[in-house]
Protein 1
Amino acid sequence: MSIPAITTQQPQCLPWFIYIIETRHGELYTGITTDVNRRMAQHRGERKGGAKYLRNKGPFTTRQLWQTVNRSSATQAELWIKSQSKKNKLALLDEPASMPFEDVFVCERLSDSVLLRE
């Protein structure tokens, strides 16, 4: 009987991002993705798959990004944000670290790359 090999290598996991974008009319839209650049290109109409809600509402401004490790956490954070009033969303944008989830971290969007704040 052979003993299975034990590995300490962690499986590769894609990070999940929660984002808030603002339309040209000041409306706030919240979503989640594993690829921020792809998703923004979809919303801008450069690729298939953008949200119907955002059609003809561009240009968009990415207001905030948060990162987490799995879809479940991203979905919980997205639903929480969507349940907030616009006033509370704007307050969250002023203090992005006030997100009430321990496994959601503030990110910055610098040009076309997404960097986790340390």
Protein 2
Amino acid sequence: MPLWNWFSVPAVSAQAEDEEEELVDPQDVLREQCQPHCASWKEKLETCNERVRSRSQTAETCVEEVIDFLHCMDHCVVKDLFSKLK
């Protein structure tokens, strides 16, 4: 009697790709929901970007506007993010 007959090996079957659920990052979902809340900061950032791009030589950067926009988004997202994590 062969040795492999003494051990039972569980059968593993792969699920079809269409049966698998697509994982969604809750942070991305919350960021989409926070876009209207931070619209004024995004508008200021876009205005700054247009102003900087329109000039050939400028020392201006939009760092402040980026920080303000990201701060707004982070503040909005963090309220609900940790309740959605497992």
Protein 3
Amino acid sequence: METTLKLADRFDAPIIRRDCEEYLITDEEAKLHQKIIWGDRHNLPFLLDECIKKTPSARFIRELMESDESRHLSQSFKDILFLKMLKPAPV
């Protein structure tokens, strides 16, 4: 998937990028943290919205932010995750 997204970015292929995004939204095999990284790196806003909705807990966000993978995230998306972590879970 990463290679396809890189090629879609390189050759400015929005249809391919959209198809990848739609696939990733429904894909159950890809890990959530990997979807977040791909979504942020390749500017896939619908995928990122779905990932934020599916983020299980503040602990998950904290572990992601403390991992080596967080260096691949943009500062603006880190800010979004931080705000999500501070927001209380609905009862």
